[in-house]
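Q: What would this chain look like folded?
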Amino acid sequence: MGFLNFFRKPGPIRNAEALADFIDEQSAFVAQKGIYEYARARAGHYAKVLFKEPEFQAACDAARWRAYPLGLAMVAEVVEGVLRPLAAGEEHRQRQALVSLVLAIFDRYPVPAAIGERAWQELRTELEHRLKLVGFHPTKWAKDVPEQFAESYFNLMPIHEKLRSRDFQTTRSYLRVTMTNVHDELTKRLDAPATAESLRAGAVAAN
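A: My prediction, written as structure tokens:
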């Protein structure tokens, strides 16, 4: 990405490809920012020293990759809630197309060295299971989507559990605010009818 791209306004989301890029970017942001900012805040004045330690860097890297599928699941649920009213009677097909899209995003990345192949595949299986459950309940407010993920996310923090025992609510609040921001950004950029149609068309082409 060129330096000037950072100053460009994000483009509209009009098809499944652009939606995939949005989900990927937002999920990576959720995974990385929460973990690094929490670790930096917990370390305080020692943050610069701590982040130079190879062992801590490795722990952060492993936590970031383990958090990424949780980010995918949360962002995908927000997306599904926005697109569900536009399914045009094909809710199942549209939902399955979204599941396939998110798994394809996951598969963009090679197995992280910090995780290993077996654990990475287990995370993919868990992600698929979470995605398939989305359609079994009414859509949620974006701020409520993280409720079922917050504890798993918090447990990934690369700080000893005795030092982070009182910080769960802070992390939970971070996820709630972040998902609200994801929803706002999505609805601002999304051509929902065109994107929903593109998703369903992709599902038909795959069959």
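DSSP finds nine helices and no strands in the chain.
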